């Protein structure tokens, strides 16, 4: 290829790539979360939609699916039925924090709902355990014992064989540590910081510490497979804000003999720990394995659980991630059952389950779990990827679903399946609609209720009644829909169980009737969403009074600029309220960077690179005849393309907004009024 043509081809590729990155920035943001349900009776709920690739309703184990996606629109604990219908949205129930591993637990002889809630950090969390009753009321919160760090997300489990009196939990404890003793750590000239993996067994009612185990007392950091600064969650070990997580304790279980089974991801090992003195009784995998692995290798595993054990054999299950995204021992992740023969010191995989993906499997480089089901099958949560599956004992996949695309940011630490019975203390929610006061539609739901089988609808044309039964329908999914051929101005819905017994009723609801102007956009199920009027038809907003700067609170609170657009015609952009700093009389400004500034900066960076590269090309062709002419034609070609036009239009809008803001900011500082 001639030199000129080569350079022009490279230039064209760079220009188009730069434009495409800018134009599609918002597109990628839109693809980072889960598609969500929309419910007329509960528009506040944004539960992820389950997308099934495989579903065999006749074969799946009865029960409900418990999971807690995070980094989605409304993170929190959720319950779904086997067909993917929402049963309970606990978003917000755990507070403004992330939740992990909702599961049914036995506390004081009855079923409860347990989960962890807390502040998410990189690779771990800080928080506490929560126990809810069958009305979704909090009956207990459990914190770590002692004077160390708070609970971690990786394990919060009522202890087996404790009759529901104690709980197992993990703690990630940062400590100062001499990291100069081993050259593999690549740290010197000072004290380092390390994360000690700790697990505790704690009495639920008293908070008393029953047992505690600390990794640094038993496993030397030299055994780590993950060194300081080697992964995105390892920590660099240089300061307390980024301690080296050499162990990464991620599961704890207990057997009837009182010993513990723990999994440590960053040493790729599973340990049996003595419940008497904490010494390591055996090690599967890792750098000091007790057993020869006859037919498998594993690494960076999660969720080790006892299945059975006697004097000569141990059977356990765990999720083999097979990769940390930086190192790998396999192409795909699997759920495994491993049998250990203590006589011959060998470990053998006896059952294996993988994801039914077209490429042969799914590689999940973090998180995940395997839950053994009563029928011998298993339920698998695929961790880093927001997928879950159910498999029969012979390996057949009978359920495989996702909450979000693999390219999204959404993750699920663990997914489980249990039977569950609950009746919330909240009431059913009802919304009714009539387009022309002729026919009436009703939509009803009851978040968290598991025993509703049908609904009765009662109507009246007066708020105080009398109310007459308009009809009954079977419950369908989370939200049930009912239509009647006549108009009803007021109504309520009544929930019935399988025996026809009334469980509860909604409050009386007034039917929404659209205005004559709005009616043309409606059908019998509601009206379409409103649209913004064209810019030329907008009515300018004029504030009746300008507020003195001294009256504004200096507490900015949460930044809501991502959710609220500028109000057209306002004297200043509303999404900058609370971000303007008091300015000097000469027009100087000490304002923090605004969201528009950040967005324009995100565009300016690639455009700056583009301009710099273009300048270099111009210099090169300065010495070549006809170079400028060809460069000009290429620039015209790109800027007039669809990509180029969109980017230039967007840049112009952002630049205009920024100029208007600066102009107003300057005039405001001179007048002393915000």
Structure in a nutshell:
It comes from Lecanosticta acicola. By secondary structure, this protein is of the alpha+beta class.
Sum up the structure in keywords:
674 residues; alpha+beta; 4 domains; 5-stranded antiparallel β-sheet
What can you see in these coordinates?
By secondary structure, the protein is an alpha+beta fold. Helix content is 15%, strand content 33%. The strands form nine sheets. It has a five-stranded antiparallel sheet with strand order 1-25-24-23-22, with no helix packed on it. Helix 1 (3-23) packs across helix 6. The radius of gyration is 30 Å and the shape is globular. Residues 575-599 are annotated as: Disordered.
- How many helices? 6
Beta-strand portion reads: 25-35%
Shape: globular
The chain-level mean pLDDT equals: 85
Order of strands in the sheet with the most strands? 1-25-24-23-22
- Fraction of residues in helix: 10-25%
What is Rg? 30 Å
Regions with pLDDT < 50 over 5+ consecutive residues? Answer: 5-30, 558-599, 661-674
Count the beta strands.
36
- Alpha-carbon distance between the termini? 61 Å
What structural category characterises the helix and strand content? alpha+beta
- The domain count comes to 4
- Give the biggest beta sheet: 5 strands, antiparallel
Strand and helix layout:
Blueprint: H1 3-23, H2 25-30, E1 51-55, E2 64-70, E3 78-80, E4 86-89, E5 98-107, E6 110-120, E7 125-132, E8 138-142, E9 151-158, E10 166-177, E11 192-203, E12 209-214, E13 249-254, E14 260-264, E15 269-273, E16 280-285, E17 292-293, E18 302-309, E19 313-320, E20 334-341, E21 346-353, E22 369-372, E23 378-381, E24 387-391, E25 397-402, E26 411-418, E27 429-433, E28 440-445, E29 454-460, E30 468-474, E31 479-484, E32 490-496, E33 502-505, E34 509-510, H3 516-519, E35 522-523, E36 526-527, H4 595-622, H5 627-639, H6 642-671
Parallel strand pairs: 17-21
Antiparallel strand pairs: 1-25, 2-3, 2-26, 3-4, 5-6, 6-7, 7-8, 9-10, 10-11, 11-12, 13-14, 14-15, 15-16, 18-19, 19-20, 20-21, 22-23, 23-24, 24-25, 27-28, 28-31, 29-30, 29-32, 32-33, 32-34, 35-36
Helix pairs in contact: 1-4, 1-5, 1-6, 4-6
């Amino acid at each position: 290829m001639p030199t000129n043509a080569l350079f022009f081809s490279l230039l064209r590729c760079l220009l188009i790539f730069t434009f495409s990155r800018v134009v599609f920035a918002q597109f990628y943001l839109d693809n980072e979360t889960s598609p969500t349900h929309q419910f007329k009776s509960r528009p506040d709920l944004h539960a992820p939609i389950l997308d099934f690739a495989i579903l065999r309703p006749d074969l799946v184990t009865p029960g409900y699916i418990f999971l807690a996606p995070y980094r989605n629109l409304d993170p929190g604990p959720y319950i779904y039925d086997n067909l993917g219908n929402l049963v309970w949205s606990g978003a917000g129930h755990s507070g403004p924090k992330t939740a992990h591993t909702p599961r049914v637990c036995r506390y004081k002889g009855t079923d409860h709902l347990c989960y962890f809630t807390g502040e998410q950090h990189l690779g771990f969390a800080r928080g506490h355990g929560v126990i809810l009753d069958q009305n979704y009321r909090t009956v207990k919160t459990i914190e770590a014992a002692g004077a160390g760090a708070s609970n971690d997300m990786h394990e919060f489990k009522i202890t087996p064989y404790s009759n529901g009196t104690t709980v197992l939990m993990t703690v990630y404890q940062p400590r100062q540590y001499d990291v100069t003793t081993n050259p593999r750590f690549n740290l010197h000239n000072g004290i380092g910081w390390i994360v000690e993996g700790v697990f505790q067994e704690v009495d639920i009612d008293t908070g008393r510490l029953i047992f505690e185990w600390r990794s640094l007392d038993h496993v030397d950091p030299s055994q780590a497979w993950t060194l300081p600064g080697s992964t995105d969650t390892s920590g660099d070990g240089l300061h307390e804000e980024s301690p080296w997580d050499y162990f990464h304790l991620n599961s704890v279980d207990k057997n009837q003999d009182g010993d513990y089974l723990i999994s440590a991801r960053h040493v790729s090992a599973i340990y049996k720990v003595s419940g008497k003195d904490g010494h390591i009784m055996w090690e599967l995998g890792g750098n000091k394995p007790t057993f020869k692995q006859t037919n498998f290798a594993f690494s960076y595993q999660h969720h080790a659980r006892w299945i059975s054990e006697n004097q000569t054999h141990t059977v356990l299950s765990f999720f083999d991630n097979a990769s940390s995204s930086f190192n790998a021992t396999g192409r795909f992740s699997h759920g495994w059952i491993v049998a250990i023969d203590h006589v011959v010191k060998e470990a053998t995989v006896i059952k294996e389950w993988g994801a039914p993906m077209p490429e042969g499997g799914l590689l999940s480089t973090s998180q995940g779990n395997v839950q053994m089901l009563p029928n011998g099958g298993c339920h698998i949560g695929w961790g880093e990827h927001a997928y879950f599956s159910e498999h029969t004992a012979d390996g057949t996949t009978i359920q495989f679903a996702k909450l979000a695309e693999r390219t999204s940011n959404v993750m699920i630490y663990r997914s489980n399946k249990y039977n569950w019975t609950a009746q919330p203390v909240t009431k059913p929610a009802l919304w009714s609609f009539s387009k022309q006061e002729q026919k009436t539609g009703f939509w009803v739901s009851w978040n968290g209720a598991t025993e509703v089988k049908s609904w009765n609808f009662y109507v009246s044309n007066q708020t105080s009644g009398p109310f007459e039964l308009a009809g009954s329908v079977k419950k369908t999914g989370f939200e049930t829909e009912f239509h009647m051929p006549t108009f009803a101005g007021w109504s309520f819905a009544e929930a019935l169980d399988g025996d026809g017994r009334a469980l509860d009723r909604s409050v009386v609801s007034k039917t929404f009737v659209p205005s004559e102007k709005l009616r043309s956009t409606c059908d019998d199920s509601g009206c379409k969403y409103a649209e913004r009027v064209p810019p030329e038809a907008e009515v300018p907003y004029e504030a009746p009074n300008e507020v003195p700067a001294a009256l504004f609170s200096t507490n900015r609170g949460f930044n809501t600029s991502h959710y609220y657009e500028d109000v057209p015609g306002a004297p200043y952009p509303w999404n900058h309220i609370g971000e303007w700093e008091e300015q000097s009389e000469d027009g100087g400004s000490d304002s923090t960077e605004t969201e528009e500034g950040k967005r324009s900066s995100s565009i300016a960076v690639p455009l700056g690179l583009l301009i710099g590269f273009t300048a270099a090309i111009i210099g090169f062709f300065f010495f070549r005849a006809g170079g400028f002419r060809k460069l000009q034609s290429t620039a015209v070609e790109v800027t007039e393309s669809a990509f180029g036009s969109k980017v230039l239009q967007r840049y112009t809008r952002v630049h205009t907004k920024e100029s208007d803001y600066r102009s107003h900011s300057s005039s405001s500082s001179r007048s002393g009024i915000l």
